[in-house]
Design goal:
The protein is mainly beta. Helix content is 4%, strand content 39%.
Length: 435
């Protein structure tokens, strides 16, 4: 599935009754298929995908040119997060939704999101947040602010069993690339913290590779948000962070967090954020720390060998909340806008409204492609190549470039386009008989 820039792939509408006791049936979404096992510690032991859909965000198949990453402006420009990309594969506003995906998700450009849910998502596939068009071209800007899984439900965990690789962070606009995220910090135009919103619950049982500079493995903010790691978080890029816990968010590590680059932090717990380390945090490199915290209890509790079943960390450093250059204060993530659910109802069935466009520029021109997307957007954006040929070399759309010979005697519904050739409106239809 190719999903165009500024577009959505799968969208689940808000369930107005989801918060009521005994509310409606659970919405299950299955994307691909496979089998997996967990080891005794809750980490993915084996994972075999049987059906793996290929998903590309920020596709370059539509008119408008190839989608590339753009380096954030210095000083910060609030228009930067509106750069090309900004596409979402899976968006659910249904709190009763459960998605299970074995898809392979790649993307192009900036500020894309693979999965956003107000229910839950289980990822068994791979998510690569690096802009593939830029990678192929050898560019240094490889996608800013892309996010793998965003949970906006603090009561239902969204879990990664597969592999997520992060991209670059837009530190100028505080839009960080994160493998998984729960909650979001909101800032005033002057830069001061305003509030947290969309708090969530994330669990990693697979692998998160924080590949590029200033990326984050797991991000959680807000008193209802929680992040738990049973798997592996590997820090590769300078300045990257394994788990970032802000604004009273709670974190637990049962797995491993490792890295050897410069300026790393295995865990950052600030502004009331708290980490319980039952696992192993091994961070090396210049100016790097195992745990960096402004919460003295975090330092004291994790240094106490009688607590947390012997979890180990290479170092623990206490800092003040105001030490923004050390702790990364001002971190947040991008989230998609609410999706307008425009639709019509036919015999009680919700039906999407389809938008059909062509790349014909002038009246009388023949189109090369037809672009189809829908208001509910369950199938992504479809590109129809009118010059395509079948396996025998014959045109698939054999009537695409023939003048229409039909005679109109009545009209039930009129659309001002042929879908293939750029047309002028039909005049005089008011004189035809009504049907």
């Amino acid at each position: 599935m190719d999903i165009d820039r500024f577009s959505y792939g799968i969208v689940l509408q808000n369930n107005a009754n989801a918060a009521l006791p005994g509310s409606g049936a659970v919405t299950n979404v299955n994307i691909g298929d496979g089998i997996y096992t967990l080891d005794p510690k809750g980490k993915t032991a084996s994972l075999t995908a049987i059906n793996t859909p290929e998903i590309v965000l920020g596709t370059n198949r539509n008119a408008g040119g190839i989608v590339l990453s753009t380096k954030p402006s210095i000083p910060a420009d609030p228009k930067d997060p509106l750069e090309q990309g900004n596409s979402v594969y899976y968006y659910s506003a249904d709190k009763n939704s459960n998605a299970k995906s074995y898809a392979r998700v790649t993307m192009n450009g900036d500020y894309n999101i693979a999965y956003y849910t107000e229910g839950s998502v289980d990822n068994f596939g791979t998510i690569n947040l690096i802009s593939q068009n830029d990678l192929a071209a050898g560019n240094t800007d490889l996608g800013y602010g892309n996010v793998g899984i965003v949970s906006a439900n603090p009561d239902k965990p969204s879990t990664n069993y597969g592999t997520i690789t992060t991209s670059l962070s837009d530190t100028q606009n505080k839009m960080y690339s994160a493998g998984m995220a729960a909650g979001r910090n909101v800032y005033a135009p002057t830069g001061e913290f305003s509030k947290t919103e969309a708090e969530g619950y994330i669990v990693n049982r697979g692998s998160i590779i924080v590949e590029k500079e200033n990326g984050i493995g797991m991000f959680a903010t807000g008193s209802k948000s929680k992040a738990i790691n049973y798997g592996d978080i590997k820090l590769v890029g300078d300045g990257s962070i394994g788990m970032y816990l802000d604004r009273n968010a709670q974190g637990e590590n049962y797995g491993t967090i490792t890295g050897k680059a410069n300026g790393l932090a295995g865990v950052i717990a600030i502004n009331g954020g708290y980490i319980k380390n039952y696992g192993t945090i091994t961070i090396e490199g210049n100016n790097s720390e195992g745990i960096l915290t402004s919460n003295l209890d975090v330092k004291t509790d994790n240094e106490d060998p009688s607590k947390y079943n012997g979890g180990t960390e290479s170092s623990i450093k206490y800092v003040a909340d105001s030490a923004s250059k050390t702790t990364g204060v001002g971190t947040t993530i991008t989230v998609p806008d609410a999706v307008p659910m425009t639709k019509i109802t036919v015999d009680g069935i919700d039906t999407p409204i389809y938008n059909v466009e062509t790349d014909a520029a002038n009246s009388g021109d023949w189109a090369n492609n037809i672009i189809v997307n829908s208001s509910i957007q369950t199938g992504g954006t479809r590109i129809i190549d009118l010059s395509a040929k079948n396996e025998w070399g014959n045109p698939v759309w054999e009537n695409a470039y023939k003048n229409q010979l039909s005679e109109v005697t009545s009209i039930g519904m009129y659309l001002d386009t042929s879908g293939v050739r750029y047309t002028n409106p039909i005049n005089g239809i008011q004189y035809l008989k009504k049907t």
